[in-house]
Amino acid sequence: MNHESLVLRAGGRPVGRYVTRPALPARLSPRPYLHPVTTLAGTPVTELSPADHAHHLGVGVAVPDVEGHNFWGGRTYVRDQGPTDLDNHGAQRHSAFQLRDPDGFVEELRWVAAGSELLRERRTVAAVELTDSAWALDFTFSLTNVTERGLSLGSPATNGRPGAAYGGFFWRARKEAGAPRVFTADAEGEEAVHARPADWLALAGAGWTLVFAGATGETRRDPWFVRTTQYPGVGSSVAHEHRIGIEAGDTLVRRVVTVVADGTLDRAGAAALVRKAVSP
Q: Of 17, 252, 254, 274, which alpha carbon lies 20 to 30 A from 216's?
């Protein structure tokens, strides 16, 4: 595959590879991504282009509908029609690194569709060692509308498909023989946690746990998109019930911190690591 990449390290140990210019077909909405991401002991916790959803690319940012352009990949959900193959895919293009260190980077990207730049993104990613068996991925994305008109972001849910408000930060986790456990501070199971906001949400597989936390007030208000039975994936939904607008020159900012731990955490352990990972 023709691409450029860098290795992300936490406490000196490699924990992820960031691919900046992947060679992908347009229908997958090409974009930079993190894969593989691992625990400190080396257990993989991401998947890339799995058979069930070829457009799931490890860890990154993807939005199904930016003014009708698909920056998620795959089919587009059309109201009263359903998932439809359309020639409407956009791409996120790496422009430059403002900062590039072993434990993180600051990157500028251009969101381009139909020959025009719609959004300019500033992406800040850092890997922080928390304990001997856990580290945190601190991921912030800022989307600025660089057009001369207002833009709106949507999801299949805002276009008529209930329960499908995916779009924003998204983590495609490792698929195993059994579905992972998912829980928050006060709820358990996919049905109980999906489409609801929570300060943190944990996904626990065979020997690994991911704990996702919104690190700003706006991010914490976004509901979580959760799948465990069909496939393991977690995202923070920027357009849940209604489309979200970005006026010309304005910026949308979200920050998600994800604890990546070896072993299976309980609620107390997950909460403790989130407190350590998320700065006030």
A: 17
Phi-psi label, residue 141: left if phi above 0, alpha if psi -120 to 50, beta otherwise: beta
The 3-state secondary structure of 251-272, one letter per residue: EEEEEEEEEEEECCCCHHHHHH
DSSP string covering 140-200:
EEEEEE-SSS-EEEE-TTTTT-TT----EEEEEPPP-SSPPEEE-SS-BSHHHHTTS--SE
3-state secondary structure of 94: strand
Cα separation, 72 vs 95, in Å, equals 19
pLDDT digits (tens, 9 = 90+) for 128-151: 999 999 999 999 999 999 999 999
Q: What is the pTM of this model?
A: 0.97
Report the chain's C-alpha Rg in angstroms. Answer: 17
| 8 A C-beta contact, residue 59 and residue 36 | no
For 112, half-sphere exposure in the C-beta direction (CA atoms, 13 angstrom radius) is: 12
Q: Are 215 and 279 in contact (CB under 8 A)?
A: yes
Q: Is the peptide bond before 36 cis (omega within 30 degrees of 0)?
A: yes
28 alpha-carbon distance from chain centroid? 15
Residue among 59, 1, 7 at smallest CA distance from 212:
59
Give the list of residues 6+ apart from residue 231 with CB closer than 8 angstroms, or none. Answer: 50, 52, 53, 56, 172, 175
List all residues 6 or more positions away from 178 whose beta carbon is below 8 Å from its beta carbon: 206
Cα atoms in the Cβ-side hemisphere of radius 13 Å centred on 270: 24
Could you report the per-residue pLDDT of 82-115, keeping only the tens digit for each? 999 999 999 999 999 999 999 999 999 999 999 9
Of the candidates 45, 97, 110, 17, the residue with the CA atom closest to the CA atom of residue 71:
110
